[in-house]
């Protein structure tokens, strides 16, 4: 069981606060040329889908993208090393356009085969390039016929990424961080559907460009409102501190239960151990991401489970003090404590549900772990503990051994 527990712990996906990464909050705005576009739920959902496709290019596992409010999207990427590359990949519009040197539009991304962009290498220079496929080969042939017939100084097909009204080829080509991907010279007609985009690419940058072109242009503009970055070392330190704090807290709880409730405390330790194991298994099964608030909720769940045990055990001790037999005390204590435990846990589940519905990602993670913890505690701390304790009581081994329940002989019949 110990090795299986460690396997489940290793499989749990860690949030950015535990393994490093970044979180960015975007405000969604309509495109300038479509200023009257209404930002609705459908448009936000389409934007999330486009962002997910771009994140696939980064190779990030378990990204967390959530819609907040009416016009905001929060992106959490754990384990990202090059955060600037990731931010640029997420926010660029990726509107590919082919224009002449006079900035007249010749064709755009809608004229390309969907998903047809790929990283390749130049046949002569072996430099990284991006290859795209035109949907209509005759269109590209006509464009190259037009440009190749112009004066030599105008025989360039300028490939833009995110061209905006007011941009010009003459100004943009001089900038270091230019929107112009490349401006190849066209001296002859090219009767082909395959277009080669060359530039100062590395293999990685060419792969990124091909990836965002295949993901498609964003249907909106994203304005970055806030950025929260966590270094890998800081995340590792947070993880170590949280785990150590959890071990200390749980060890103190176990020690208290054994000291104060004796045999019943030993039953509680067994069921609480099973509870922690089951919570991690369920959390892993849900493919949820564990964060610092999630660890806090797990430890809080241990406290809730212990609280259920304490209520039951105290009821049993009260019945023993009144002079009842161990069998009668066990049945009466279990029956009278159940409604109290149910009320306490149901109200906590309701509060956690509200947190999940109205909260942001970190708060939602806390709420999910808390709900899972409470439901699991019903299986272990309530029914599991009663089942184990009931087996021992029914065996009659514990008859007239009130001290094993933490009740002294002098306390009996005092109520």
Automatic annotation (TrEMBL):
Tell me, what is an example of a GO biological process annotation in this record? protein transport by the Sec complex
- Spell out the subcellular localization from the entry: Cell membrane
Show where the Protein export membrane protein SecD/SecF C-terminal domain sits: 221-392
Annotated Protein translocase subunit SecDF P1 domain residues? 46-103
Give the matching InterPro entries.
SecD, SecD/SecF_arch_bac, SecD/SecF_bac, SecD_1st, SecD_SecF_C, SecD_SecF_C_bact
Membrane topology of this protein = Multi-pass membrane protein
What stretches pass through the bilayer? Answer: 241-259, 266-286, 292-316, 337-359, 365-393
Sorted alphabetically, which keywords does the UniProt record give? Cell membrane, Membrane, Protein transport, Translocation, Transmembrane, Transmembrane helix, Transport
Is Ribonucleoprotein among this UniProt entry's keywords? Answer: no
SUPFAM superfamilies, alphabetically? Answer: Multidrug efflux transporter AcrB transmembrane domain
**GO CC, alphabetical:** plasma membrane
**GO MF term set:** protein-transporting ATPase activity
Q: Which Pfam families match?
A: SecD_1st, SecD_SecF_C
Q: What does this protein do?
A: Part of the Sec protein translocase complex. Interacts with the SecYEG preprotein conducting channel. SecDF uses the proton motive force (PMF) to complete protein translocation after the ATP-dependent function of SecA.
Q: How does it assemble?
A: Forms a complex with SecF. Part of the essential Sec protein translocation apparatus which comprises SecA, SecYEG and auxiliary proteins SecDF. Other proteins may also be involved.
Q: Which HAMAP family match?
A: SecD_B
PANTHER family cross-referenced by the UniProt entry: PROTEIN TRANSLOCASE SUBUNIT SECD, PROTEIN-EXPORT MEMBRANE PROTEIN SEC
Give the family, as the similarity comment puts it. Belongs to the SecD/SecF family. SecD subfamily.
- Name of the protein in question: Protein translocase subunit SecD
Question: Can you name the source organism?
Answer: Alkalicoccus halolimnae
């Amino acid at each position: 069981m110990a090795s299986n527990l460690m396997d489940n712990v290793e499989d749990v996906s860690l949030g950015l606060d535990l393994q490093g990464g970044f979180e960015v909050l975007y405000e969604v705005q309509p495109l300038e040329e479509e200023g009257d576009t209404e930002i609705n739920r459908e448009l936000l959902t389409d934007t999330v889908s486009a962002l997910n496709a771009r994140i696939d290019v980064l190779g990030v596992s378990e990204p967390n993208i959530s819609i907040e409010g009416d016009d905001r999207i929060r992106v959490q990427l754990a384990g990202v090393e090059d955060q600037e590359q990731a931010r640029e990949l997420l926010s660029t519009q990726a509107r590919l356009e082919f224009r002449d040197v006079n900035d007249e539009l010749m064709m755009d991304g809608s004229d390309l085969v969907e998903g047809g962009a790929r990283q390749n290498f130049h046949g002569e220079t072996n430099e990284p390039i991006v290859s795209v496929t035109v949907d209509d080969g005759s269109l590209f042939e006509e464009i190259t016929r037009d440009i190749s017939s112009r004066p030599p100084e105008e025989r360039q097909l300028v490939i833009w990424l995110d061209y905006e009204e007011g941009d010009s080829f003459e100004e943009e080509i001089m900038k270091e961080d230019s929107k112009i991907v490349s401006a190849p010279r066209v001296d002859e007609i090219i009767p082909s559907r395959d277009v080669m985009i060359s530039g100062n690419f590395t293999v990685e940058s060419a792969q990124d460009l091909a990836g965002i072109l295949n993901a498609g242009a964003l249907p909106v503009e994203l304005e970055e409102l806030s950025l929260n970055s966590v270094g890998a070392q800081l995340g590792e330190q947070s993880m170590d501190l949280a785990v150590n704090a959890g071990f200390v807290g749980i060890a103190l709880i176990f020690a208290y239960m054994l000291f104060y409730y004796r045999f019943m405390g030993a039953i509680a330790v067994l069921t609480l151990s099973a509870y922690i194991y089951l919570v991690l298994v369920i959390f892993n099964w849900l493919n949820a991401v564990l964060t610092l608030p999630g660890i806090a909720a797990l430890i809080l769940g241990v406290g809730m489970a212990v609280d259920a045990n304490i209520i039951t055990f105290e009821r049993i001790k009260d019945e023993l003090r009144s002079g009842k037999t161990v069998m009668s005390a066990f049945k009466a204590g279990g029956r009278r404590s159940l409604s109290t435990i149910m009320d306490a846990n149901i109200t906590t589940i309701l509060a956690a549900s509200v947190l999940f519905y109205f909260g942001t990602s970190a708060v939602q993670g806390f709420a999910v772990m808390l709900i899972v913890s409470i439901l699991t505690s019903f299986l272990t701390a309530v029914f599991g503990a009663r089942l184990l304790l009931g087996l021992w009581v029914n065996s009659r081994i514990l008859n007239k051994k009130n001290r094993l329940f933490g009740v002294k002989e002098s306390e009996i019949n005092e109520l």
